[in-house]
Amino acid sequence: MVLKPEGLGRKRLPEADRHERIWGFIDRVVKKGGEIEAETKERRYGTKTRGERTVPAARLAGEGVYAFLKRGRNLHLTYELELPKQPGEVQEELNIPKQGAFIVSIRNPETPSPPGAGLPERGEANYPKPLQQEFRGRRFATEDPRLLDYEGAEFILMGARTDPERAYDLDIKAEHETRQTADIFRQLKLSPREHPLEPLFEGEWR
Q1: Which domain holds residue 160?
Q2: How many structural domains does the chain have?
Q3: What residues pair up with 144 in beta bridges, in sequence order?
Protein backbone atom coordinates (compact mmCIF):
# COMPACT_ATOMS: atom_id res chain seq x y z
CA MET A 1 0.00 0.00 0.00
CA VAL A 2 1.31 3.42 -0.98
CA LEU A 3 -0.15 6.57 0.58
CA LYS A 4 0.02 9.54 -1.79
CA PRO A 5 -1.09 12.93 -0.38
CA GLU A 6 -2.60 14.29 -3.58
CA GLY A 7 -6.10 15.20 -4.73
CA LEU A 8 -8.89 14.98 -2.15
CA GLY A 9 -8.33 15.97 1.44
CA ARG A 10 -5.44 17.56 3.30
CA LYS A 11 -1.85 16.74 2.43
CA ARG A 12 -1.12 15.12 5.80
CA LEU A 13 -2.38 12.36 8.03
CA PRO A 14 -5.16 13.13 10.53
CA GLU A 15 -4.47 14.14 14.12
CA ALA A 16 -5.01 11.19 16.46
CA ASP A 17 -5.46 13.24 19.64
CA ARG A 18 -8.35 15.21 18.11
CA HIS A 19 -9.83 12.21 16.26
CA GLU A 20 -9.59 14.29 13.09
CA ARG A 21 -11.19 12.92 9.91
CA ILE A 22 -9.65 13.05 6.43
CA TRP A 23 -11.16 11.85 3.15
CA GLY A 24 -9.18 9.67 0.72
CA PHE A 25 -9.58 7.23 -2.15
CA ILE A 26 -7.81 4.33 -3.88
CA ASP A 27 -6.19 5.72 -7.03
CA ARG A 28 -4.48 2.61 -8.42
CA VAL A 29 -4.46 -1.11 -7.68
CA VAL A 30 -1.48 -2.90 -9.25
CA LYS A 31 -0.10 -6.43 -9.19
CA LYS A 32 3.56 -5.51 -9.64
CA GLY A 33 5.49 -2.86 -7.76
CA GLY A 34 7.18 -1.63 -10.93
CA GLU A 35 3.85 -0.29 -12.20
CA ILE A 36 4.00 2.47 -9.57
CA GLU A 37 7.23 4.07 -10.83
CA ALA A 38 5.57 5.64 -13.87
CA GLU A 39 3.20 7.52 -11.52
CA THR A 40 5.94 8.87 -9.27
CA LYS A 41 8.94 9.81 -11.41
CA GLU A 42 9.51 13.26 -12.95
CA ARG A 43 7.30 13.98 -15.95
CA ARG A 44 7.39 16.68 -18.62
CA TYR A 45 4.52 17.73 -20.84
CA GLY A 46 3.74 20.55 -23.24
CA THR A 47 0.95 23.12 -22.96
CA LYS A 48 -0.40 25.57 -25.55
CA THR A 49 -0.09 28.64 -23.33
CA ARG A 50 2.80 27.94 -20.92
CA GLY A 51 5.16 25.83 -22.98
CA GLU A 52 6.80 22.80 -21.37
CA ARG A 53 5.80 22.01 -17.80
CA THR A 54 7.53 19.71 -15.31
CA VAL A 55 5.94 17.59 -12.59
CA PRO A 56 8.74 16.83 -10.08
CA ALA A 57 9.45 13.29 -8.96
CA ALA A 58 7.66 12.19 -5.81
CA ARG A 59 9.55 12.63 -2.56
CA LEU A 60 9.48 9.48 -0.46
CA ALA A 61 8.44 10.47 3.05
CA GLY A 62 8.44 7.12 4.85
CA GLU A 63 8.50 3.35 4.69
CA GLY A 64 6.98 1.05 7.26
CA VAL A 65 4.76 -1.91 8.05
CA TYR A 66 1.02 -1.85 8.65
CA ALA A 67 -1.82 -4.08 9.79
CA PHE A 68 -5.61 -3.99 9.70
CA LEU A 69 -7.34 -4.88 12.97
CA LYS A 70 -10.98 -5.32 13.90
CA ARG A 71 -12.08 -3.89 17.23
CA GLY A 72 -15.80 -4.30 17.76
CA ARG A 73 -17.49 -2.95 14.64
CA ASN A 74 -14.52 -0.76 13.68
CA LEU A 75 -11.72 -1.46 11.23
CA HIS A 76 -8.38 -0.02 12.39
CA LEU A 77 -5.33 0.66 10.23
CA THR A 78 -2.15 0.72 12.32
CA TYR A 79 1.45 1.25 11.22
CA GLU A 80 5.03 1.73 12.37
CA LEU A 81 7.75 3.55 10.41
CA GLU A 82 10.97 1.78 9.48
CA LEU A 83 12.42 4.72 7.54
CA PRO A 84 13.48 7.27 8.51
CA LYS A 85 14.74 5.82 11.77
CA GLN A 86 13.61 8.97 13.56
CA PRO A 87 10.88 11.24 12.10
CA GLY A 88 12.21 14.64 11.03
CA GLU A 89 10.81 17.90 9.65
CA VAL A 90 9.24 16.17 6.65
CA GLN A 91 7.32 13.69 8.77
CA GLU A 92 6.34 16.43 11.24
CA GLU A 93 4.90 18.57 8.44
CA LEU A 94 2.96 15.61 6.99
CA ASN A 95 1.96 14.43 10.48
CA ILE A 96 3.62 11.01 10.17
CA PRO A 97 4.74 10.01 13.69
CA LYS A 98 6.77 6.87 14.38
CA GLN A 99 3.57 4.93 15.09
CA GLY A 100 -0.09 5.63 14.53
CA ALA A 101 -3.53 4.13 14.04
CA PHE A 102 -6.72 5.20 12.30
CA ILE A 103 -10.31 4.01 12.13
CA VAL A 104 -11.24 3.34 8.50
CA SER A 105 -14.78 3.86 7.16
CA ILE A 106 -15.34 2.84 3.52
CA ARG A 107 -18.01 4.66 1.52
CA ASN A 108 -20.88 2.87 -0.19
CA PRO A 109 -20.78 4.08 -3.83
CA GLU A 110 -24.53 3.48 -4.15
CA THR A 111 -25.29 6.23 -1.61
CA PRO A 112 -24.78 10.02 -2.01
CA SER A 113 -21.37 11.50 -1.17
CA PRO A 114 -21.10 13.91 1.77
CA PRO A 115 -21.35 17.57 0.68
CA GLY A 116 -18.13 18.84 -0.86
CA ALA A 117 -16.41 15.44 -0.93
CA GLY A 118 -16.20 12.37 -3.07
CA LEU A 119 -15.22 11.30 -6.57
CA PRO A 120 -17.37 11.89 -9.65
CA GLU A 121 -19.69 8.95 -10.33
CA ARG A 122 -17.57 7.64 -13.20
CA GLY A 123 -14.57 7.35 -10.85
CA GLU A 124 -16.29 5.49 -8.03
CA ALA A 125 -15.56 1.86 -7.16
CA ASN A 126 -17.54 -0.79 -9.00
CA TYR A 127 -17.87 -3.67 -6.54
CA PRO A 128 -19.03 -7.16 -7.48
CA LYS A 129 -22.51 -7.83 -6.10
CA PRO A 130 -21.42 -10.17 -3.24
CA LEU A 131 -18.97 -7.55 -1.96
CA GLN A 132 -21.43 -4.67 -2.44
CA GLN A 133 -23.73 -6.52 -0.05
CA GLU A 134 -21.17 -5.95 2.72
CA PHE A 135 -22.57 -2.43 3.03
CA ARG A 136 -26.05 -3.77 3.87
CA GLY A 137 -27.55 -0.51 2.61
CA ARG A 138 -25.42 1.67 4.91
CA ARG A 139 -23.50 4.75 3.74
CA PHE A 140 -20.25 3.37 5.16
CA ALA A 141 -18.83 -0.05 5.98
CA THR A 142 -16.27 -0.58 8.73
CA GLU A 143 -15.69 -4.32 8.82
CA ASP A 144 -14.17 -5.66 5.56
CA PRO A 145 -10.75 -4.45 4.26
CA ARG A 146 -11.39 -6.23 0.92
CA LEU A 147 -13.49 -3.18 0.00
CA LEU A 148 -10.21 -1.26 -0.33
CA ASP A 149 -8.94 -3.57 -3.08
CA TYR A 150 -10.78 -1.65 -5.81
CA GLU A 151 -9.81 1.51 -7.68
CA GLY A 152 -12.16 4.34 -6.77
CA ALA A 153 -12.84 2.99 -3.28
CA GLU A 154 -13.40 6.02 -1.03
CA PHE A 155 -12.75 6.09 2.68
CA ILE A 156 -12.50 8.26 5.76
CA LEU A 157 -9.45 7.99 8.02
CA MET A 158 -10.08 9.08 11.60
CA GLY A 159 -7.13 9.50 13.93
CA ALA A 160 -7.43 6.94 16.71
CA ARG A 161 -4.19 6.09 18.54
CA THR A 162 -0.65 7.44 18.92
CA ASP A 163 0.69 4.26 20.60
CA PRO A 164 -1.09 1.36 18.83
CA GLU A 165 1.19 -1.41 20.12
CA ARG A 166 0.26 -0.56 23.70
CA ALA A 167 -3.39 0.24 22.94
CA TYR A 168 -3.99 -2.94 20.92
CA ASP A 169 -1.47 -5.23 22.66
CA LEU A 170 0.16 -5.71 19.26
CA ASP A 171 3.69 -6.26 17.98
CA ILE A 172 3.83 -4.76 14.47
CA LYS A 173 7.34 -6.20 13.86
CA ALA A 174 9.06 -3.31 12.15
CA GLU A 175 12.43 -4.26 10.67
CA HIS A 176 15.78 -2.51 10.47
CA GLU A 177 15.97 -1.09 6.94
CA THR A 178 18.81 0.57 5.01
CA ARG A 179 19.26 1.99 1.50
CA GLN A 180 20.24 -1.50 0.36
CA THR A 181 17.32 -3.36 1.94
CA ALA A 182 14.48 -0.80 1.72
CA ASP A 183 11.36 -2.43 0.25
CA ILE A 184 10.44 0.82 -1.45
CA PHE A 185 13.30 0.10 -3.88
CA ARG A 186 13.38 -3.72 -3.85
CA GLN A 187 9.66 -4.50 -4.04
CA LEU A 188 8.10 -1.33 -5.44
CA LYS A 189 11.00 -0.92 -7.89
CA LEU A 190 11.19 2.84 -7.32
CA SER A 191 14.49 4.16 -8.62
CA PRO A 192 16.71 5.85 -5.99
CA ARG A 193 18.16 7.94 -8.86
CA GLU A 194 14.73 9.37 -9.70
CA HIS A 195 13.61 10.51 -6.23
CA PRO A 196 15.04 12.85 -3.59
CA LEU A 197 16.20 10.56 -0.75
CA GLU A 198 16.74 13.06 2.09
CA PRO A 199 13.05 12.98 3.20
CA LEU A 200 13.13 9.16 3.44
CA PHE A 201 16.45 8.64 5.17
CA GLU A 202 17.10 11.91 6.99
CA GLY A 203 13.64 13.43 7.43
CA GLU A 204 14.78 16.61 5.66
CA TRP A 205 13.34 18.36 2.57
CA ARG A 206 16.59 19.76 1.08
Answers
A1: 21-201
A2: 1
A3: none
